[in-house]
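$ ./design --mode recover --in tokens.txt
reading tokens...
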């Protein structure tokens, strides 16, 4: 039981999780979540195509 151990400790293996059985309510929530993610992805793609609307990144002052 020395305090010095060589190398890294290996993480313990996680037990394989059984496949969950979903009921109607869970399936409806999963479907809704997928649709929302898809809609957000489409909105992001549209926003990227348009670029910045006003180009108001760093504003320079007229003072020197």
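writing sequence...
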């Amino acid at each position: 039981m020395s305090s010095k151990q060589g190398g890294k400790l290996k993480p313990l293996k996680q037990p394989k999780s059984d496949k969950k059985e979903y009921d109607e309510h869970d399936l409806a929530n999963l479907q809704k979540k997928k649709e929302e993610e898809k809609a957000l992805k489409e909105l992001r793609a549209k926003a990227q195509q348009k670029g910045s609307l006003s180009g108001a990144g760093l504003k320079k002052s007229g003072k020197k």
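exit 0
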